[in-house]
């Protein structure tokens, strides 16, 4: 199978049939123009600045390695154009810290220590891409990770596991249709959480209690608006990690 065929087969699940809207930038569609002109049958040869004599110079020992590096060189440049700056130090009144794929937001609220933790791995929603307001003909892939909200007083922690609500998802008996996120799970423990700690699913909570718990989070600044801002922060940060990964793959193949 040619490189073009492999790219096209991997591209299939990510193509979005939206009239007048381009596929997400990470779908690599813009790079297929370059690849199509490089098809092995009747192709137009393009000048390569990489070693092509098979001697292993530049650390590339196979033709596939060289083609991958050439592809990544153009893809990295294209993706960097869509980067939207560094991670902010604060989101509303929460301080923000990141480490690899982990994101942690913290703040004090009266006698409570509030911590929101999440991981951006495997969180990009390819089904419902967001239209880029700056470039209406393009779409952005949104990161909508589940997140943990820990309210700590001394050694005791009330912990919420939350996730973003799919568009149009309404649960009977719960007014979640207007909520950007919902409560999946609730637990209270002391010290460190372990597998023996009892957790209750948000689905079986009394409807009134569920609403009061959502109000409790809202009073601490974890609102629908905050959740949307958090998704934007995660989307931008995940994109930064993606571009960094592309660079690392290129450096690995080039033996840097």
TrEMBL record:
Q: Name one GO biological process term.
A: cytosolic ribosome assembly
Q: Name one GO cellular component term.
A: mitochondrial matrix
Record-linked InterPro entries:
MAM33, MAM33_sf
Q: Sorted alphabetically, which SUPFAM superfamilies does this protein's record hold?
A: Mitochondrial glycoprotein MAM33-like
Where does the source fall among the domains of life?
Answer: Eukaryota
Assigned protein family: Belongs to the MAM33 family.
Can you say what this protein is called? GC1qR
């Amino acid at each position: 199978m040619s490189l073009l065929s492999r790219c096209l087969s991997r591209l299939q699940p990510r193509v979005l049939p939206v009239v007048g809207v381009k596929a997400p930038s990470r779908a690599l569609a813009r790079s297929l123009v370059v690849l199509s002109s490089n098809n092995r049958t009747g192709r137009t040869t393009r000048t390569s600045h990489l070693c092509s004599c098979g001697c292993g110079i530049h650390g590339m020992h196979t033709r596939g390695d060289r083609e991958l590096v050439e592809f990544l060189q153009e893809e990295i440049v294209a993706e960097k154009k869509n980067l939207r700056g560094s991670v902010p130090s604060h989101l509303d009144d929460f301080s923000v810290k990141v480490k690899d794929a982990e994101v942690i937001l913290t703040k004090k609220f009266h006698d409570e220590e509030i911590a929101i933790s999440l991981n951006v791995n495997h969180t990009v929603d390819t089904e419902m891409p967001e239209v880029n307001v700056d470039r209406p003909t393009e779409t952005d892939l949104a990161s909508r990770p589940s997140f943990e909200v820990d309210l700590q007083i001394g050694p005791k922690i009330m912990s919420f596991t939350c996730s973003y609500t799919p568009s149009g998802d309404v649960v009977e008996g719960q007014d979640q249709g207007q909520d950007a996120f919902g409560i999946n799970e609730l637990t209270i423990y002391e010290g460190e959480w372990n597998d023996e700690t009892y957790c209750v699913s948000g689905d079986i909570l009394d409807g009134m209690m569920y609403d009061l718990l959502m109000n409790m989070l809202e009073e601490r600044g974890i609102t629908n608006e905050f959740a949307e801002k958090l998704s934007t922060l995660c989307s931008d940060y995940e994109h930064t990690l993606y571009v960094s990964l592309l660079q690392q793959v290129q450096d690995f193949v080039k033996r840097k």
